[in-house]
Amino acid sequence: MLAVVFGADGERVEERPEPVPAADEVLLRVEYCGICGSDLHAGEPDFRVGVVMGHEFSGTVVGTGRDVEGFSAGDRVVVNPNGDVCGRCAACVRGEVNLCANLWDTVVGLARDGGLAPYAAVRAQTLHRLPEQVDLAAGALVEPLAVALRTVRNSGIPVGEQAVVFGGGPIGLLVTSVLRAAGASRITVIEPNPTRREKALAQGATDVVDPYSTPVGEAFADPAVAPRFAFECSGVPQLVGEAVKALAPRGVLTVTGYSRRPPEFDAADLLFKEITIRGSFIYVSEFRDAIELLARGRVDVSALISGVVPVADADEAFSAMRSSPEAVKHLISDHHSTV
Hints:
alpha/beta, Rossmann fold, six-stranded parallel beta sheet, globular, metal-binding
């Protein structure tokens, strides 16, 4: 079978044998697998050379190892790529499984073979059942939706508050959706691309700002519209400073966008306004809760899917997501028609 494999110089499509499940693994037919921003910027040591990429995927069970109980052929599932935690380290004992000391040795799609292939074998403990009312394509967005859900929860934003979201990429748009579902009164999305600004409005934003035509400082110059909660979802380090400057006194900035460069901000803005900066990393119970949000129709992710292509054309999807701001989330599937 063809698979997208991480190499020293990035992703490549190559032949791989179909996986055979170990005793504690389940063999999945991969229905849809999303390309994540981390896949676009993959590098060592987080990604292991030779590993099949892809950590946002839904599947159908086609076989199980001899020790697996509770799953059988035909089950519709979604994979929690960070669900294989050790359960023994200090973080796991505290229930902070997203901070498991051994996580980077088990992450599906980074350290273990993932879903950018027609079939994948994963440990049973990473699987969650997908309700019938959630289609399999939407199931491929459970993982980023869980990231967005934890980001909003970590912020502590109460119902009725104003918020500003920096970045109209997949996570920023999903954070916007969750904020709307959580009852935020005004949600402003800062995004230079017009297509993504339109998508932000469709996902629940009340206002959008093009920072090239209206600097962020001008957009929130009136203290009455200065938000108390901001979300940095782009991974652009300078925007941490923009967010700190835009926030009202005693505001909270939650950062989920990752950059290898350190953030930039004015210490005076941070100190004199008593701003709180919080990080948010993957999820704990939010993976299960994200499935429930989709099942109840509280969040719609369909508009974020930019297209579906087979594994053989994955390089084109990677290229589109790197070069075109209009491409939000491409899915890979060898089992469904392309769109």
